[in-house]
Write a structure and sequence with these properties.
Blueprint (H helix, E strand, L loop, with lengths): L3 H44 L16 H17 L4 E7 L9 E6 L6 E7 L9 H30 L9 E4 L4 E4 L2 E7 L2 H16 L13 H16 L14 H15 L7 H4 L26 E4 L2
Parallel strand pairs: 4-7
Antiparallel strand pairs: 1-3, 2-3, 4-5, 5-6
Helix pairs in contact: 1-3, 4-5, 4-6
């Protein structure tokens, strides 16, 4: 059953498209009429010297039969072009226009030449089916969109919202760390600890069972990843220095990373177990047992901007 709202919308669409169609159609018709009139004026101006027009200065009455044949030939051409104008008369005497007629004047000789046109600027009624079709089509589209939105709202209200867990976002353009849930709170990191931390996360995500001991050499894969991020910083214009030795001063590098994370995760301590490189605990643990690997991090836990 069609509702009152749908009828109102259809009426609104119909009025809108009728107005647009009427204005654009009228503009096109007037442009075509003006173009055809100018074309006929030019043709008559070229042929005027050989036309058998009456000459009031010489008391010459002209040749009406030849003039009629000339006008007929012009109108025949206009009809073939589906023109909206019809040349009624060409005269050296002043003509008067009635409703639906238009007069043009040619000058440039001893006497003026008047051209009388009949003009059809009416709209073709069958063409008005076009805005009606547009109105029906837009109403159908609007109904379809409204129906989809309504279904989406019902589906959205039926499914409970799942709160997204915050992840760590690292912006290489500003060399800063922030959480996805709080992009205003940012912590800066220097080049070396930043590159090492990114490499550590990527390495541990790919090798979750691989321990990392400070007294053992860093894996080549980890060093290559750190080197990759350092070259990215160079390409972003952050530094022109040579690649640092990521194996040297490892404890200092880890301390800088932990200090930055302490500041960043002060309001989210539950995330420390995932992003925080573990510290050594107990006597002798630094030498053999301690691993600073991130055993709980995955590739989906970090978003690197500008990688």
């Amino acid at each position: 059953m069609i509702s009152l709202k749908q009828v109102s919308m259809f009426t609104l669409f119909l009025i809108l498209f009728l107005f647009i169609f009427n204005v654009s159609s009228k503009y096109t018709i007037n442009e075509n009429i003006l173009r055809d009139i100018q074309s006929v004026k030019l043709r008559v101006a070229i042929d005027r010297a050989r036309l058998s027009l009456e000459d009031p200065n010489l008391n010459y009455s002209g040749n009406e039969e030849a003039l009629s044949e000339y006008i007929y030939a012009l109108n025949d051409f206009l009809q073939q072009q589906h023109s909206r104008i019809y040349l009624s008369a060409v005269s050296s005497k002043k003509l008067n226009a009635q409703e639906g007629e238009h007069i043009e004047v040619l000058t440039g000789t001893t006497y003026e030449t008047y051209l009388l046109f009949k003009v059809d600027d009416s709209h073709k009624l069958p063409l008005y089916i076009i805005p009606i079709i547009f109105a029906v089509f837009n109403l159908a589209v609007l109904r379809s969109v409204s129906r989809r939105r309504f279904k989406a709202q019902i589906k959205k209200s039926a499914v409970p919202l799942i709160e997204e867990k915050p992840i760590l976002q690292v912006d290489l353009y500003s060399k800063s760390l922030h959480l996805s849930c709080d992009k205003e709170h940012k912590v800066q990191l220097a080049n070396k600890p930043l590159c090492f931390y990114l490499a550590l996360i990527e390495y541990c995500a790919a090798n979750p069972e691989s321990p990392l001991n400070q007294n053992k050499e860093l894996p080549e894969e980890l060093l290559e990843l750190a080197d990759k991020y350092f070259h990215r910083l160079i390409s972003l214009g952050h530094t022109i220095r040579k690649r640092p030795n990521f194996s040297n001063s490892l404890e200092k590098t880890l301390s800088e990373i932990r200090a930055a994370l302490d500041e960043l995760l002060s309001n989210s301590p539950e995330l420390k177990s995932k992003y925080y490189p573990p510290k050594a605990h107990g006597e002798g643990s630094r030498s053999k047992l301690h691993s600073y690997a991130l055993t709980r991090v995955t590739s989906g836990d970090i978003d690197i901007i500008g990688r």
